[in-house]
Amino acid sequence: EKYLVIHGPNLNLLGTREPEVYGTVSLQEINEKLRLSADKYGVKLVILQSNSEGEIIDILHQHRDAKGIIINPAAYSHYSIAIHDAIKAINVPTVEVHLSNIYGREEFRRHSVVSPACIGQISGFGYLSYLLALEALMSSDK
Ligand code: DQA
């Protein structure tokens, strides 16, 4: 069973990027934690990172056979109708993830246009947000 994890723009710099906001754990370390967790569930993860909107949409299309998707659309969360539409189009249960609590930050981060296309959203728990999202997908019957 294949599950897809997509990390959006600037998340390749995690660990050194605004550590007071996003923590000091690198993207590679987050991916390792995700893989350990996936092994326990006995599922396969495809993990990809992209800084470009079109590429994220192509990835969603290419992996529409996935059982579930975890996506941190990063800044695209706040304005990409195209990513919202792609999630709707492929019809795969998708959980939106944010490291920071987007509702406690600047006004422009307090709204996600992607979340209505998702089964749920986890925001504010640092790298744990991703692990909780995987747990949610494993437990959800959506
Ligand atoms: C983020 C929150 C976004 O507002 C921001 O643009 C990011 C990361 C998060 O994981 O907290 O790049 O998605």
Tell me about this structure.
- Helix 2 runs parallel beside helix 5 (128-139) and helix 3 (53-62) packs parallel to helix 4.
- With 142 residues, this protein is an alpha/beta fold.
- Helix 4 (81-90) links the parallel strand 3 (68-72) and strand 4 (94-98).
- It has five helices and five strands; from the N terminus they run E-H-H-E-H-E-H-E-E-H.
- A five-stranded parallel beta sheet has the order 2-1-3-4-5, covered by helices on one side.
- The structure holds 1,3,4-trihydroxy-5-OXO-cyclohexanecarboxylic acid (DQA).
- 1,3,4-trihydroxy-5-OXO-cyclohexanecarboxylic acid is lined by residues 10, 72, 74-75, 77, 98-100, 102, 109.
Structure keywords:
142 residues, alpha/beta, Rossmann fold, 5 helices, globular, binds 1,3,4-trihydroxy-5-OXO-cyclohexanecarboxylic acid
Identify the CATH homologous superfamily: Dehydroquinase, class II
Strand tally, please?
Answer: 5
Contiguous runs where pLDDT drops below 50 for at least 5 residues = none
Question: If helices are DSSP runs of H or I spanning 4 or more residues, what is the number of helices?
Answer: 5
Mean pLDDT: 97
Shape: globular
Helix/strand structural class: alpha/beta
Sheet of most strands: 5 strands, parallel
CATH arch. level architecture: 3-Layer(aba) Sandwich
